[in-house]
UniProtKB/TrEMBL annotation:
Keyword Transmembrane: yes
Keyword annotations: Membrane, Transmembrane, Transmembrane helix
Transmembrane segments: 6-24, 31-49, 55-74, 81-101, 121-145, 177-197, 217-239
Name the UniProt record assigns to this protein: DUF3307 domain-containing protein
Length: 242
């Protein structure tokens, strides 16, 4: 019941926040309308899932007031991915509080039993593997390649070959996340698929560039990123067995 109610409220929030009134392109006058619609839909959901009317009203009211406060707070904040993520996490926290508040005590006990049976150590080890595969690995790879980075970038022209800002770092993040995921799931062929896909997209650049130095630099970065991703995945999987 707890999980069902939480998921339905999350779906309502996502539909209003990203489909009905897209948060990125939302105008100021749409904020209160979106909050009103989400509150009404939340009230309907709570009542249809056998929550008493009084608790449904209080829960919907809390969701609405919290949404207004969060929207007003973030309206003056800089735009960006991190602010979007933090904002949605706050919305999720509000929904979780409402669910835990309106459900019966027996339902909370059942949810606690499920949480107690969760292998938190495995989740912690897997999360650590992903964490290590991001910034620490990126910093280590940058230090590993620093002797050649300036030499390669100095040969790049400022025209069409100029790379996007920080694009390489984010490509590395996504690459290592996929590799860690495949390693933790024991799907090593997926690692080969990631490397093959990257090689296909890189082939055109390497062919057009025509520089052995650039080719070797790309290969060093690719293999280093793959090595760190595989290492983080193996470490997370190994530690989770204890």
């Amino acid at each position: 019941m707890v999980l069902t109610l939480l998921l339905v409220l999350v779906v309502v929030h996502v539909c209003v926040e990203f489909y009905l009134f897209p948060v990125i392109a939302r105008r100021a006058r749409h904020v209160y309308l979106s909050v009103l619609i989400e509150s009404v839909l939340s009230l309907v959901v709570l009542y249809l899932l056998n929550i008493p009317l009084l608790w449904s009203l209080l829960g919907a009211l809390f969701i609405g007031l919290s949404s207004v406060a969060i929207s007003v707070w973030f309206r003056a904040s800089p735009t960006g991915l991190r602010y979007l993520v933090v904002k949605q996490l706050l919305h999720f926290l509000v929904l979780l509080i409402v669910v835990l508040f309106v459900v019966e005590s027996e339902e909370r006990v059942a949810a606690k039993i499920v949480l107690d049976q969760t292998d938190w150590w495995m989740l912690f080890c897997w999360g650590t593997a992903y964490l290590l595969a991001m910034k620490p690995s990126s910093a280590a790879i940058a230090l590993l390649l620093q002797n050649w980075t300036d030499e390669v970038t100095s040969t790049e022209s400022s025209g069409t070959n100029k790379p996007l800002k920080d694009a390489g770092a984010y490509i590395g993040y996504f690459e290592r996340i996929l590799i860690v995921t495949f390693v933790l799931w024991g799907q090593l062929p997926g690692v080969a698929l990631v490397l093959a896909a990257k090689s296909v997209f890189r082939f055109g650049d390497l062919k057009d560039h025509g520089s052995r130095m650039f080719t070797e630099y790309v290969m060093l970065g690719t293999f280093a990123s793959a090595l760190f991703g595989i290492g983080c995945g193996l470490l997370g999987g190994y530690l989770s067995k204890f």
